[in-house]
Amino acid sequence: MFFHVLTLFPDMIRDGFTTSILGRAAEKRILSLEAVNIRDYTKSRHKKVDDYPYGGGAGMLMQAQPVYDACQAVIEGIQTRKKTAVEEKVRVIYLTPTGQVFSQQLARELAREEDLIFLCGHYEGIDERVLEEIVTDYVSAGDYVLTGGELPAMMIVDAVSRLIPGVLHNDVSAEFESFQDNLLEYPQYSRPEIWHDRQVPPILLSGHHANVEKWRREQSVIRTAKWRPDLLEDAELTMKERELAEEII
Q: What is the arithmetic mean of pLDDT over 192-199?
């Protein structure tokens, strides 16, 4: 998987990609990250990439030209790597509060791509004309506003990366996490068996794998009903599980 991030702060992106699980995956060349400085593509000798918006208003707006040229350079690099002149459509994701809210379902969809380009806005946003020309997906990190798109981009890179085979030490772990089957993840415990007078649930010490899986499933249903009942609408539940959830809601 190749990630390409168009940003005014490339060091911020690179620093977030060199540690822990993602760092190890990059060392193994399972993942690749290219942080592209949009300022490198401005035609302004002062490296200026913003200007006042037409019609007035607060703040500055990122200009179309440097954003477009940075994106085109990335696309040409992808074509060179693939040794093809065919204009293959690469998904360009603009991080914006006006986009669809990012979800695990979208993460799974994006994980099927070979290349992803992320466009990080700043100031009051980006000239609409270049967005209309290059952006394929408008994605939001949630219903709040941040100072830029770098943190949402890093969040999405992390979520997508975990779904790439070989990134996690144990690939099976991605199959039993929150939002799989529209349920939150069950509670988990480690040693010691008793901590602060709190005991690990006895079922987890039983060694009976079928019963453990049944307990975990029930706990996922209970947690989801308590904390995210909205998810249950699309969850595939048995009649007994549905009754269990309704008792809590």
A: 95
